Amino acid sequence: MSLADDARERLAQLKRDGLLRAPPTVSTAQGPVVTIDGHALLCLCSNNYLGFADDPAIIAGMQRSLERDGAGAGASRLISGTMSVHRDAERTLAALVQLPSALLFTSGYAANVGALQALFGDGDFIFSDALNHASLIDGCRLSRASINVYPHGDLEALERRLRARPRGARAVIVTESVFSMDGDLADLVALRALADAYDAALFVDEAHALGVFGPGGAGLSAALGVVPDVLVGTLGKAFGGAGAFVAGDASVIALIENRARSYVFSTAPAPALAAAAVAAAALVQRADERRATLLRHAQRLRTALRALGYEVLHGESPIVPVLLGEPARAVAIAGALREHGCFVQAIRPPTVPRGTSRLRVVPMATHSDAQIERAIEAFATVRSALKEHA
Ligand SMILES: *Cc1c(COP(=O)(O)O)cnc(C)c1O
After folding, report:
1. Which fold has domain 56-285?
2. Are 207 and 249 in contact, with CB atoms under 8 Å apart?
3. Can you give the pLDDT at residue 230?
4. Residue 354 backbone dihedrals phi, psi, to 5 degrees
5. In the annotation, is 237 catalytic?
6. Per-residue pLDDT for 44 more than 70?
7. Active-site residue 297, yes or no?
8. What separation in Å is there between the alpha carbon of 328 and the centre of ligand 1?
9. Sign of the Cα pseudo-torsion (183, 184, 187, 191, in order)
10. 182 CB near ligand 1 (under 6 Å)
11. Could you tell me if 361 and 326 are in contact, meaning their C-beta atoms sit under 8 angstroms apart?
12. What is the pLDDT of residue 389?
């Protein structure tokens, strides 16, 4: 069978399973309202939490950089691609998360894969939360360390496993701070204590907490007074741009700079993206009001959708997961919401476990109260239509 025939067959199987993905195309900038197929829709599934993806100050910073630094870095960082704007961004981001040193990556995926592979290897032990992001899972696998997946948030199980590990072996606990699909928070204080008690390092992915929690948006670790050994922050979510960074002790960062294959063997981020990070960092630090609005919108959605009879996971983050079970059901409800002016995506396996397909509803700080109420009305309409059919 030709590769193309084989691919067609596998796509057909994905379709039969309700797992075929075909994303809609957004034809406007990423604001609180986006245009899809000529229709203006409330955007309720973006990680552009603070509304900075179309911020004029960030765009201006990128434009100045384009004129000064040009379009591309031309080479990897270790050859000729390291530019002053990359170093500016790294100093700014390290200061923001209150850690000594930081290193830019082209994406959070590249940062997680690279940092884990750089720091851990054969003979080491990685303790990884069961709900960790695919990039953390792939980084663990790539490292060739021994991987121990503990049940989500189960500190007792984690402690048993830490205790059972061979003495003297290098070890690390890997976790997200805000879990991307459930929206719950890791107990970072307890994880730090366990790491210290069992001579392990603590690796925290702050993708969904950076800009959202902590003083000046420094993340959940900073909010709780926890110092991780490695902190990963992404620039494509609350920062509104693209890219990521790894922060920590200067020697840890220098080792990553020398060993992370996704860093060493990849062209440096476009200088304008580093400039966007610098501009966004200044805005993020002053965004207390936006953070408060974002969390208030999320709380309102959680309460109202639950009152309508939806199964909404508990949480304190901007992520409001509405559990629907089978993929087809999640897709149908997302489609119905689209007809009522709301853009929400169905999240299906392999992103979430089987039987837990869901809508991941996420407001933005730049939504108005009236827009959030309009979203709730759409959920109410769709819900009563569902009941009529049942
Ligand atoms: C989005 C995400 C990443 C990947 O970041 P990108 O910059 O989008 O590649 C990593 N970790 C978590 C927890 C994420 O949600």
Report:
1. Aspartate Aminotransferase; domain 2 (3.40.640)
2. no
3. 98
4. -55, 145
5. yes
6. yes
7. no
8. 26
9. negative
10. no
11. no
12. 61
* Higher-scoring residue by pLDDT: 20, 361: 361
**How do the domains of the chain map onto residue ranges?**
18-50+288-388, 56-285
Helix (H, G, I), strand (E, B) or coil at 361: strand
Does residue 243 carry a pLDDT above 80? yes
Which residue from 329, 363, 365 is spatially nearest to 347, judged by alpha carbons?
Answer: 329
Residue 72 has pLDDT above 90, yes or no: yes
Question: Is the CB–ligand 1 distance for residue 244 below 6 Å?
Answer: yes
Correct CATH for 18-50+288-388 of 3.90.1150.10, 3.30.1540.20, 3.10.450.50, 3.40.50.1220 = 3.90.1150.10
- 46, 135, 213, 266: residue to mutate for ligand 1 pocket, most atoms within 8 A of CB: 135
pLDDT, residue 390, reads 55
Lowest mean pLDDT among 77-91, 126-140, 309-323, 375-389: 375-389
List the structure tokens of 91.
Answer: 């100093």
- pLDDT-based confidence at 384, cuts 50/70/90? confident
- Percent of the chain having pLDDT more than 90? 94
Q: Predicted confidence band at 22 (pLDDT cuts at 50, 70, 90)?
A: confident
> How far is Cα 75 from Cα 83, in angstroms, rounded to an integer?
11
Listed in sequence order, the residues at least 6 apart from 66 whose beta carbon sits closer than 8 Å to its beta carbon are 271, 272
Rounded Cα gap, residues 52 and 278, in angstroms: 13
Atom of ligand 1 nearest to the CA of 133: 13
